[in-house]
Amino acid sequence: MREDYKKHLSGQIEKHFLNLEQMILEDIVRRIKKAGKITSTADWQINRLQIIGYSSEDIEKMIKETLKLSYPEVFELYDKVIDWEYVRNKDIYEQVNAKYIPYEENKELQQLTEGFIQQSNEELRNITQSMGFYVDYGNGKLVMTPLADIYQNYLDQAIAGVVYGTFDYNTMIRKVVTQLTNSGLRYIDYASGWHNRVDVAARRAVMTGVSQLTGKISDMNAEKLGTEHFEVAWHSGARPSHAVWQGKVWSKKELVTVCGLGTGPGLLGWNCYHEYYPFLKGISERNWTDEWIKEQNIKENTPKSFNGKEYTLYEAKQQQRKMETAMRAQREKVVLLKQGGADPDDVMLARAKYQGQLNEYARFCKKMGLTEEKERIYYDMRGRIATNSKQQNAKYTSEMFKNAERDSKQYYRYKNIIGADIGSLEKFRQMKYNEPEKFSFIKLDYERRTELLKNPDKKLPNAENAILPEGKFTKYLFDGEHSNGLAKGRAISSRLGYIIENWHEFRDAIQKGAVKYPAVKKESDGHGQRYEQKMVLMGLKNNPANVVVGWIQRPNGEVSMTSAYLKEV
Questions:
Q1: Cβ-contact 234, 226 below 8 angstroms
Q2: 265 and 368: one domain?
Q3: The whole model's pTM is what?
Q4: β partners of residue 12
C-alpha cells in the first residue's frame, strides 16, 4: 500500500479527532467565559448547574459526530489494502499457475476484512469513552483527569474565583487554555495507566488493524503461492531497530525472530509502517539491494546539526513531528484565548510565538533536508493565525515567550497595587524587556506601595488632608526668584514636564501620592515633626522619576509640604 496514501487517509482520521479536541476545548472556554460574568454567590448557586449542566450530553453529540465522520475513512483504508496488497499479487499467481480468487468471491478474505474493520471501529469507540486531560492543579504534579472532572474542576474554580475575587478572569482563562492545550485531549487506558493524545491513539488503532490485515493477506498469498519467504518493505527515516531488517528477504520464522513480528515494538507493531510481501526465489526480484540499503543507512545515520544539536534522519523526523504537534497546540491556544476574551496582548503574544515556531520549523526542515508537512499543522482549517508583520514579530523576543506566564502574573500583581498608572499588559511587557530603566521605576513603585500596605503605621500622618502651599510651586520651584528652588524646578520640568503654567498638576500628583507611599520620620524642631516621603511619579512625559517630598506636622496636627525635588535612586 502506498505510504503517502496511507498517511493521507490516516491523517483524515487524525483530523476528525483533533476537531473533537477543538470542539471540547471551545466548549469549556465558552462555559468559563459565561462563569466569568457571575457577580454574586446567589448567582453562583442559581447558574452553576446551568453552566456546568448538559456537558455530558453535549460531549456525547460531539463524539457521535466524530465517529460518524471517521467510519468512511476506515472503510476506504481497508478497501485500499485489498486493492494494493491482494489484487497486486494477481500477476504472481499467473506466473506460477496458481489459482487466483477475486476478492468478490473470496469469502475467507471478506470475513477477515470485515472483522478488522469492526475491530478498528470498536477501538475508536473505546477511545472516545475514556478521554481526559493530563494537567497540573497547582502542586507541580501532572494528573490524568477524566473529561467530566475537567469540566467540574475548572468551571468550579472559575465560578468560585470570580465570586470571591481570588483571581482576575484573564489569569484564569490563560491558565486553563495553556494547561489544556499543552496536554491535548487524551485517551486513557485505566487498566495499564497508558495514555496518549486522542488523535495519535485513533490513528494507531486504525493503522494497527490495517497493518494486521496486510500481514494476513501476505501470509494467505504466500501459502497459496507455496513460499516461506517474504520481502520486507523499505522506507526512509525508519526507527533504528527497524532499519536493520527493512528492505531484505526473510523466512516466515525470521520475520518473528529477527523482525519481531507479532510484538508491539516489532514488524506491524506500534506505529510501524512496514509491510511484507511473498517472495518467490527464482521468480521474484528484490526491490532494494543490500548495497543500496547500506548506502542509504550511511546517509541517514550521518547526523546534521541544528542549533547546536545533531540529528540523524530518524531523530530529525521525530523532532519534526514534535514541532508540528506544538504548532497545532499553539494555533488552538490562539483561538481559545480570543474566544475566551483574554487580554489582547496575551493573544498577540500567542500569535507571535506561533510565528516563531513556523519560522523555526521551516529552518529546521531545510537544514535537515525534510519536506515541510504543513498540512499536519493546518488540520483545524482555521486559516492564518500568525502575526501579520515583521514589526509585530520584532516586538516579541524568545525571552518574552519563555516568561509569558510569569510576566502576566507579575503584571496583574503590580496592577492590583499600582492601578491604571501601570498601563496595558502589552506596554508592561515591552517596558520590561526594552526599557529596563523605566521598568526599574515601576518595580520600585510597586515595592514602596506594598511596603505601606504591609506596614500601615508608616503612613504619613493626616495624609488625606495634607496642605500643599501654592507658593512652594509658583514662588519657589518654577518662578526663578530662588536659585536653589529653580534648580530643583528645572530638573522636575526636564524629567516630568511640569512648569509654572501647569504647576497644579504636579501638586495634584504629590497629593495623590501622599496616601500611597511610606513616610520616614526625620528630625523634630521648634516648628514641628518633619517627615520624608519618596514617591515614583510618571509625570506628563510618561518618564518616571524618584521624587522626594518633605513634610512637617505642626503642633496643631496640620501637615504641610515643605519641599519637593528629584533624586537618583
A1: no
A2: no
A3: 0.71
A4: none
